[in-house]
Design brief:
- This protein has helices spanning about 5-60, 75-90, 95, 105-135, 160-170, 180-205, 220-230, 235-250, 260-270, 270-285, 290-295, 295-300; strands at about 210, 210-215.
- The chain is an all-alpha fold and about 300 residues long.
- The chain has 2 domains: about 5-125; about 160-300, no CATH class.
- Strands 1-2 form a two-stranded antiparallel sheet.
- The termini are far apart.
């Protein structure tokens, strides 16, 4: 029989040797995998350069020109999502490849800077798209021209000042440009129409209580009210105001307002020449909220 102590030592030595061999093999395998990742990063440079150029072209295609100011007409959320996904898929950082920063190819750092620029441009396009959709919800029909302001919009019946204010706040986070001026122009159209509606309601409340005229109901105030109602573009609001104005008219002994479809249409809309002149003037300078409200009686909101 052999010495038990010697056998124990021999078994332990074999075990330690096996562990050492496994450790060395594991470390060599990790080193090999790491070198493969470094090699992959080096070969990915050309692919990423091509992808950056492709995404840059795709972002430019979202706009009407290479200056990237106005979004082209008819772009969809799917286009934005697809372009954004391509951009997100471009690996440029050491973490993306699972390697150390020092082992990242030099050209990859240049690509990373280009991707950063494209990320900002992509975010800008997405923000503009979202805000334009928000502005469309203010009106009965979507804005017809997102390159040049056209004052042919009609606010929704239940539109509130806060709806416009929320969008104006979002626009304030976008760098000032011809696009932000355009958005503010459309918001000023909504503001002016809302102001007209508010003033008509105030006038009606002062002249009519419980369907009976008050001592504030005069011929002059009635004429001013009728003139203002004739310029309301929203059909539902105009009908509501006209019905109340008729009650005032009848009790003043004047009969009804006698609006007809043609008169309503003519009073609520611009002639083509007037619209074009207004658009050109409005687009040159940003109308303030006060100016938009004060001038509504002249522009026919």
């Amino acid at each position: 029989m052999g010495n038990p102590l010697i056998k124990t030592i021999a078994v332990a030595a074999v075990g330690i040797g096996a562990v050492a061999i496994c450790f060395v093999g594991y470390r060599e395998n990790n080193n090999k995998q790491y070198q493969q990742k470094v090699s992959y990063a080096e070969t990915a440079v050309k692919k990423d350069e091509a992808s950056i150029n492709e995404v840059n072209s795709a972002i430019t295609a979202l706009y009407t020109s290479k200056e990237k100011v106005f979004l082209k007409r008819g772009i969809t959320e799917a286009e934005l999502t697809q372009t954004g996904a391509k951009l997100d898929g471009i690996k440029v950082s050491a973490d993306d490849f699972g390697i150390e920063e020092n082992d990242l190819p030099k050209n990859m750092k240049k690509i990373a800077k280009e991707k950063e620029v494209l990320n900002k441009q992509m975010a800008d396009a997405e923000a503009k798209f979202a805000i334009q959709n928000n502005v469309d919800t203010l009106f009965e029909k979507p804005v017809s021209n997102w390159q040049k302001a056209q004052n042919n919009v009609v606010i929704k019946t239940k539109l509130k000042d806060t709806d416009v204010g929320t969008i104006r706040e979002r626009v304030s986070f976008i760098d000032e440009s011809d696009w932000t001026k355009l958005v503010k122009e459309y918001l000023s159209y909504a503001d002016a129409q809302l102001k007209r509606v508010a003033e008509i309601n105030k006038s009606l409340e002062s002249m009519l209580k419980d369907d009976k005229i008050t001592n504030k109901a005069t011929y002059e105030k009635y004429l001013s009210l009728v003139n203002s109602i004739s310029q309301v573009r929203n059909k539902n609001l105009k009908e509501e105001f006209t019905e109340k104005a008729d009650k005032i008219s009848e009790q003043l002994g004047l009969g009804t307002t006698g609006y007809n479809d043609n008169a309503t249409s003519d009073a609520a809309s611009y002639s083509d020449e007037a619209t074009q002149a207004n658009d050109a003037s409005n687009y040159q300078s940003e109308a303030s909220d006060t100016e938009a409200g004060d001038s509504y009686s002249e522009t026919g909101y």
